[in-house]
Amino acid sequence: MHGGKEARIADPADRSAVVARAFAAMVLSNVCLAFGPVSVRLAAAYSDIGPVTSAFWRLGLAIPVLFVLTRVMRQPIPRMGRGMVLMLLTGGLFFAADLGSWHVGILQTRLANATLFGNITTFTFAIYGMIVARALPSRMQGIAMALAFGGVGLLLGRSYELSREYLVGDLFCIFAGLSYTGYLIAMGKARGILQPMPALFVSTLAGAVPMLFAALAMEGKLMPDAWWPVLALAIGSQVIGQGLLIYAIGHLPPLIIALGLLIQPIVSTALGWEFYGEKLAMFDWIGGAAICIALILVRRGERPAVAKPAQPV
């Protein structure tokens, strides 16, 4: 925003261009976020810190960068009412719960499992979007959802065929996904008023405080032996990944955001194959292809908004 006023998009042609950019940002954000599990494992191996501590550093190191970006991008933090502050604090707490449980789960299951179960948000956030819109998906969106769910089923079946020893890690990741749903709902409401950088900065700050206490209470050692893994986590996942996602949330409906999250298990499965020898079967490829097709269909099947309120850029 400039001079304390929010830039708004009202012209239909401009709105279409913004939505296209938001869709591209959503895709790129999920690619960046998919590298998160690898960074967590690298932090455990090279930084010699626990998963909750690495979650704290993801937020803590991102705070000064996000603050600078609010200045550089001319998106200053405005005066906020009690309701907005409470919304951002709630979002930050949900995100802290998501990160803490997900980082623990990452070290106790496969990369593909961690990303897939962590993104159970795909289903819960899509359901939330339907409830808010008070409408069922269009025919094209329904086909896209069926394809996406089928692709998820193929990937899930592959994961469970390997071993049941990942159950505890999977449960942590499922809890993380439910917490992430609360975070996205809170941030979606905040983005109706705030621009992306102020919203992300305040929610990150709100999440870092409880993560610090949790790290000290649960793991003790706070300072990493090597800084590069936690820096990669903070910049790649929090600043770039979440920054792009928060921007996209302001311009795309929940269904598209929800299905876009399934990009992460596709990328993470490929990373697990490349770096950790987690073998891919034919069903993995078919499941990934089904999800990619679903993303194309859900974008084409988006209902045109007749009188959609303009959003802050």
TrEMBL record:
The chain crosses the membrane at residues 21-43, 55-73, 85-104, 116-136, 143-160, 166-186, 198-218, 230-249, 256-276, 282-298. Pfam families: EamA. It comes from the Bacteria. PANTHER family: ACYL-MALONYL CONDENSING ENZYME-RELATED, EAMA DOMAIN-CONTAINING PROTEIN. InterPro entries: EamA_dom, EmrE-like. The keyword Transmembrane applies. One of its GO terms (cellular component) is membrane. This is DMT family transporter. Keywords: Membrane, Transmembrane, Transmembrane helix.
